[in-house]
Amino acid sequence: MAWPALAKASPLKRFEYSLPRMGTIFRIVLYAGNATLASEASSEAFERVEQLEQIFSDYREDSELMRVCRTASQSPQRVSPDLFSILQSSQRVSELSDGAFDVTIGPVVRLWREARRQRRLPEAEQLSKAKLAVGYRNVVLDPDDLSVFLKRDHMSLDLGAIAKGYAADQARMVLEKHGIHCALVAAGGDLSIGDPPPGAAGWDVEIRSWTSGSESESQTLQLHNCSTSTSGDKFQFLEVKGKRYSHIIDPNTGLGLTDSASTTVIAPDGTTADALATTLSILSVSRALSLADSLDQVAAFLVRRQGGKFITVRSRRFPPFSEEARHQASLKHPVSAPH
Ligand code: AMP
Ligand code: MG
């Protein structure tokens, strides 16, 4: 009897999908053996993101987060494992940054959102009142029954600085469950990155660092099996009297940042990358660098405005951009022009 011919492993093909979710565009790029697997896996990944949006959103009145904000100051509320987990991660980053990162910033963020719409600064009096309801230490998490208690009335939680990184990772985990390891999920500037594309050393990730006038500066990193997030005031800002206020708020002052143009973080997971990109934007350059250097497998690239110019600073582990790596290689192996 002749043996049936061994089926040849089909080569991996590239597939790409995108959908608006969580106030940004979620993009999935993956390599799979066939279109059915690729489309089923990515539909499921998008469903997972939709499920998370219904939990984390502070725009949807019926989200789990909004329900907790309404009720958890009366008594501890049991929450879903996703909400508990992201709140635990948030507390960890708040502690690491001494409160620079703080998801209880909600009441202040709302004032700034309104200020952006109306193109004027928020009233100082309203800001001071809103700040009274801010403070991560007023969130009490009980891991035994996954409950949340808010110690003060009128608190409002805002997961805008951490939820997209979490969701990008979760979406990629769905792809992994389908056996798709070679994939990238981008939630706007928050990327969860798996194995490299076939034959490549990594994914070419374009980091758009800053904008001056109409000029946008971008550089490329080659990455795999990690997450990266870029936070900045490129799209969301309020300009008043020539000063640009970011949508990232320093909880100490209640004001939008003015000196941080963009921060890129590379970290082992998306939740950490997203939360840290926001956090390091707020901290002084020296505190941001020492925090990045103190954390395992974390690297950061900061762009700050200083005296009308941009300065860039990188933490110890930040890899060279591809353009720099090529330049360094050409210095090692100079190509001499033929005589
Ligand atoms: P990102 O783009 O990830 O840096 O997140 C910015 C968003 O996080 C803002 O639009 C706010 O919703 C929220 N946010 C602003 N300031 C803070 C802060 N200090 N800590 C935590 N979340 C913040
Ligand atoms: Mg963030």
- Residue stretches low in confidence (pLDDT < 50, at least 5 long) are none
The number of helical elements comes to 9
Strand order across the largest sheet? 1-2-6-7-10-15-16-17
- Give a short account of the largest sheet: 8 strands, antiparallel
Average residue pLDDT: 93
Coarse structural class: alpha+beta
What is the tally of beta strands? Answer: 17
Beta-strand percent range: 25-35%
Shape: globular
Bound molecules: adenosine monophosphate, magnesium ion
Structural features:
3-stranded antiparallel β-sheet; 8-stranded antiparallel β-sheet; alpha+beta; binds magnesium ion; 34% helix; 339 residues; binds adenosine monophosphate; 9 helices; globular; 29% strand; single chain
Written description of the protein model:
With 339 residues, the protein is of the alpha+beta class. 34% of the residues lie in helices and 29% in strands. It has nine helices and 17 strands. It has helices at residues 35-56, 64-71, 81-96, 106-118, 124-131, 163-177, 270-282, 285-294, 322-332, and strands at 13-21, 24-32, 77-78, 139-142, 147-150, 183-187, 190-193, 203-212, 215-223, 226-232, 237-240, 243-246, 249-250, 255-256, 260-267, 299-306, 309-314. The strands form five sheets. The protein has an eight-stranded antiparallel sheet with strand order 1-2-6-7-10-15-16-17. It has a three-stranded antiparallel sheet with strand order 3-5-4, covered by helices on one side. Strand 13 and strand 14 form a beta hairpin. Helix 6 runs antiparallel to helix 7. The longest helix has 22 residues, at 35-56. It is globular and about 60 Å long. The N and C termini lie far apart (66 Å). Bound molecules: adenosine monophosphate (AMP) and magnesium ion (MG). Adenosine monophosphate is lined by residues 101-103, 105, 109, 158, 160-161, 231, 247-249, 251, 274, 277-278, 282.
